[in-house]
Amino acid sequence: MDIESNNNNMDEAIGKRSEKKKKGRKSKLLSIILELLLVLSLFLSVGLYGRVNKLENRILELENNQKIVKNILKLQSTEITKLNLSKSIDEGVVTDKFFVHKSLFFDDEAVIDIDLQPSIVTTYVGEGKFNIDDNELKKYIMELLVKVGATYDEGKLDEMKAFKDLKVHITIKNYDVAMLENGTLSLVKS
Question: Of 1, 47, 75, 124, which residue is least crowded by CB atoms under 10 Å?
Answer without folding.
Answer: 1
